[in-house]
């Protein structure tokens, strides 16, 4: 049965009041087995190690502190437990010049490590527990933290819950090795060990991480820790992932920090070690330190533990701790087959190895002098190693498949590590793996791979993750003319490919808008793929050959010069309409139109559905002709006459006006006897039509014409007399007795007896 222990390490400095000027630390836990009081609980030992100055004041060294227990999901406080000091030791480097005669300005490094332990029984749950302690403040003047004397520290560790795996709570957290008095000289190469051990044999992965802030200068020792902890404010150009600048890295496999040290000063350095069990993230531990970089000058020959060239046979070497006090170099490349080039006196030689294999490398600086130093390493030459990876898919909330694409000429690929920027990544050390991204965006995926010859390489790529696409179908279900083809309409929300099924009776099935011509009702389904992100939809198509059309007219019987309404209906849509004849229609291409025929007319509507489905219907309109009025020719009467009869025609009902001088205004032939010349208008209609037409006649009343004739006279019986009539018009003399011409104004007469001649003048 496993036992668990938690430990935290902290660094403290300064003596101002009760403010704990921390210098770092870490927390860890150990599993001790089932609970003693309750076997269903788990028993843990939680340990906090604090780093502080070697001679703290009584106000800075807290004999008792609180461990705060929180819910990781809600950040809610569960309880505070008081914890007492269990150990109190000083860690000191040797700063006497005799210890390191070849380092000028050797710094004095002393830490007090204070340990707090708590035995705790906890019930298993899904989310686990977060244990934290916060204290303020850090030492002033830290190079990579803004206003560090007002910045505190929080130490935290999380016990996993059963939602990871049912056995996740049966676990020991990684435990850092305490070796923190390394001498680091400014602007020189150094190494610093953040290596941890794991009692469970879990796979460990190291990285830099944000150091935590905590508490405040106003309340440096709160009873409850800050939760969730927040990052300290880093001073540019430094940040959580380059805490000592771009030239300092941490090995993700060993936890060794190395590189060229920044300028002298104090730097907050925080490393996190993540543990994976069978590729599943279990938990992590973090250690933060205040690293002192001194203005010392070492005379060192420093090499990496090993060098490997996996691209070609060439390698350029340099001393990792250069110094102006180094006056000579001697390199031996361990490659006698290369001839005279097997050694070099250059500071930065380039050597071309004669073959593949493992070579012993030696560097001696200041050879034969009092401050000389020698370094040894091995060089592996195995060119032809090219790391790489590919992936398929790009959809949010969909597993993206990542593939190892590494090639190697020598050996075989034997380790893999994927970094998706998510601490809960599953299958982190698999060769090929899946990962699901919860949000759209561009993600930097980093892949580290090694082979059996020791070649190691890291490649990165931005992986675009897009939202799942959408597709809009132009119509959901539709019928169409079975003699035609129908174009389906779809629009995807982004660029992608279309696939329609079934593949029968369809043209261009891989387009957004294919043509279909099914003989029976068919459901066409479209799959829209935007780079592996797929959305599906469908449309039902029903072929029809039963086009019908009805024509309606209202009213069907009209009078000449009236209009009526024609309309049509059909059992399908959309329809193209055409009415004929068009000459007496207002809108012959509309479903409803106005007709104004002058004679009886039959109208036909033709319905076109699609291109080839056609149906027709007809409606007849009866047109009753209006009257054709004729009032007759103008007439004239003489004063005092008995009148004249008018004779109108063209209809079957009449109305005269004005009524003055007419015997009857409602008949066709009234007697007109006006006192003066009058124009009479007759409105003539036909039965059934309200509209009438009119005509007019002028009845003139003329005065008698002026007339003068010869006076009575005597003539001899044998004589002839000329009569004289004066006037304009036609003359008629009576009697017709011994007269030359009755119809002239001045005829000759020769009566034998006394005769009275009368003349009538008519104009």
Structural notes for this entry:
- Residues 1-18 have low confidence and may be disordered.
- 33% of the residues are buried.
- Helices cover 0% and strands 47% of the residues.
- Strands 1, 2, 3, 4, 5, 7, 8 and 9 form an 8-stranded mixed beta sheet that branches. Strands 20-26-25-22-23 form a 5-stranded mixed beta sheet, with no helix packed on it. Strands 11-18-17-14 form a 4-stranded mixed beta sheet, with no helix packed on it.
- The chain is mostly beta strands and 763 residues long.
- The protein is built from no helices and 62 strands.
Mean pLDDT: 88
Shape: rod-shaped
Approximately what portion of the residues adopt beta-strand conformation? over 45%
Tell me about the biggest sheet?
Answer: 8 strands, mixed
Distance between the termini: 154 Å
Number of strands: 62
Q: Stretches where pLDDT falls below 50 for ≥5 residues? A: 1-18
- The percent range for helix content is under 10%
Which structural class best describes the helix and strand composition? Answer: mainly beta
Number of helices: 0
Radius of gyration: 60 Å
Quaternary structure state of the chains depicted: single chain
């Amino acid at each position: 049965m496993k036992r668990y222990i938690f430990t935290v390490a902290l660094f403290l400095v300064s003596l101002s009041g009760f403010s704990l000027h921390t210098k770092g630390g870490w927390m860890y836990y150990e599993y001790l087995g089932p609970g003693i009081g309750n076997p269903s609980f788990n028993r843990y030992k939680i340990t906090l190690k604090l780093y502080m100055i070697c001679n703290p004041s009584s106000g800075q060294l807290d004999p008792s502190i609180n461990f705060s227990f929180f819910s990781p999901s809600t950040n809610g406080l569960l309880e505070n437990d008081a914890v007492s000091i269990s150990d109190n030791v000083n860690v000191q480097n040797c700063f006497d010049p005799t210890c390191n005669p070849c380092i000028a300005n050797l710094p004095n490094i002393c830490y007090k490590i204070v340990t707090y332990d708590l035995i705790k029984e906890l019930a298993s749950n899904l989310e686990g527990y977060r244990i934290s302690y916060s204290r303020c403040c850090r030492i002033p003047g830290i190079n990579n933290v803004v206003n560090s004397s007002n910045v505190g520290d929080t130490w935290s560790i999380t016990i996993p819950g059963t939602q990871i795996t049912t056995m996740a709570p049966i676990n020991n957290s990684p435990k850092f090795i305490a070796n923190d008095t390394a001498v680091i000289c400014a602007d020189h190469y150094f190494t610093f060990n953040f290596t941890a051990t794991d009692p469970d044999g879990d796979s460990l992965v190291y990285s830099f991480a944000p150091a935590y802030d905590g508490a405040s200068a106003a309340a440096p020792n709160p009873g409850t820790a800050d939760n969730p902890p927040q990052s300290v404010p880093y001073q540019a150009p430094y940040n959580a992932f380059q805490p000592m600048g771009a030239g300092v890295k941490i090995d993700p496999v060993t936890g060794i920090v190395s590189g060229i040290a920044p300028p002298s000063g104090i730097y907050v350095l925080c490393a996190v070690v993540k543990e994976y069990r069978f590729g599943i993230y279990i938990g992590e531990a973090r250690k933060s330190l205040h690293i002192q970089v001194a203005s010392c000058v070492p005379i060192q020959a420093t090499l990496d533990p090993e060098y490997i060239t996996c691209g070609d046979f060439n390698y350029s070497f340099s001393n990792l701790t250069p110094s102006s006090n180094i006056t000579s170099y001697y390199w031996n490349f361990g490659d006698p087959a290369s001839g005279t080039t097997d050694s070099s006196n250059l500071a930065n030689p380039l050597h071309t190895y004669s073959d593949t294999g493992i070579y012993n490398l030696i560097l001696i600086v200041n050879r034969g002098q009092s401050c000389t130093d020698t370094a040894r390493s091995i060089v592996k030459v195995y060119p032809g190693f090219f790391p790489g990876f590919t992936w398929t898919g790009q959809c949010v909330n969909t597993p993206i498949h990542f593939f190892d694409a590494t090639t190697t000429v020598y050996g075989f690929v034997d380790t893999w590590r994927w970094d998706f920027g998510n601490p809960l990544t599953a299958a982190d050390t698999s060769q090929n793996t899946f990962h699901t991204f919860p949000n759209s965006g561009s993600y930097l995926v980093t892949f580290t791979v090694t082979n059996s010859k020791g070649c190691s390489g890291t490649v990165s790529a931005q992986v675009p993750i897009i939202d799942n696409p959408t597709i809009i179908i132009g119509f959901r279900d539709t019928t169409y003319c079975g003699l035609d083809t129908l174009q389906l309409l779809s629009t995807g929300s982004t660029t992608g490919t279309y696939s329609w099924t079934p593949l029968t009776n369809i043209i261009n099935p891989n387009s957004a808008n294919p043509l279909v011509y099914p003989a029976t009702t068919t459901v066409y389904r479209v799959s829209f793929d935007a780079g592996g992100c797929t959305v599906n939809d469908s449309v039902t198509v029903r072929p029809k050959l039963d086009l019908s059309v009805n024509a309606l007219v209202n009213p069907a019987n009209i009078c000449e010069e009236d209009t009526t309404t024609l309309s049509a209906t059909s059992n399908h849509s959309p329809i193209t309409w055409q009415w004929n004849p068009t000459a007496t229609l207002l809108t012959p291409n509309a479903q409803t139109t106005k007709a104004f025929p002058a004679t009886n007319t039959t109208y036909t509507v033709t319905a076109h559905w699609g291109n080839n489905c056609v149906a027709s219907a007809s409606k007849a309109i009866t047109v009753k002709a209006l009257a054709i009025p004729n009032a007759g020719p103008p007439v004239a009467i003489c004063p005092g006459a008995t009148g004249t009869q008018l004779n109108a025609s063209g209809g079957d009902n009449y109305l005269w006006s004005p009524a003055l001088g007419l015997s009857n205004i409602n008949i066709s032939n009234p007697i007109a006897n006006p006192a003066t010349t009058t124009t009479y208008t007759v409105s003539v209609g036909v039965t059934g039509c309200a509209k009438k037409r009119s005509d007019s006649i002028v009845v003139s009343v003329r005065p008698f014409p002026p007339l003068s004739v010869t006076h009575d006279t005597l003539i001899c019986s044998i004589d002839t007399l000329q009569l004289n009539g004066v006037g304009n018009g036609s003359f008629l003399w009576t009697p017709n007795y011994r007269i030359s011409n009755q119809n002239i104004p001045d005829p000759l007469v020769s009566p034998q007896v006394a005769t009275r001649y009368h003349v009538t003048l008519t104009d």
